[in-house]
Amino acid sequence: NPDGTAENILGLVTTSGLSRRDLVLWNVVPWQLSRQKVTTPSAEHHWDALPATRHLLTLLPRLEAVVLVGRHAQRAWDGVGSNLRRFEMPHPSPQNFNTRPQARKAARETLTEVRRILESKQ
Description:
51% of the residues lie in helices and 8% in strands. The protein is built from five helices and two strands. It has a two-stranded parallel sheet.
């Protein structure tokens, strides 16, 4: 999505030192919910998306960890039933980062920790 959230994610990935080639970006509901306005995913949307997420995981046998970005991803993940290492960070929307400066710092720290873990395994 060409928006402020995508710009913030790119900035966080860059400043954390992660390589884009080490990442797979995936929305908890990986399809468009509305054509006219932003629609907040519901628990039903999360449930409907679980098979797609489970299938994606079968395609990523070398996946080592998941970074759950925002509350929706964090709530939905338990339904996936995966034992992957789990990290959580605040959602990088401009609204969240502009009203909660500590959210940007927490997100950067999470991604930096993930980078350190990946480097230690090389």
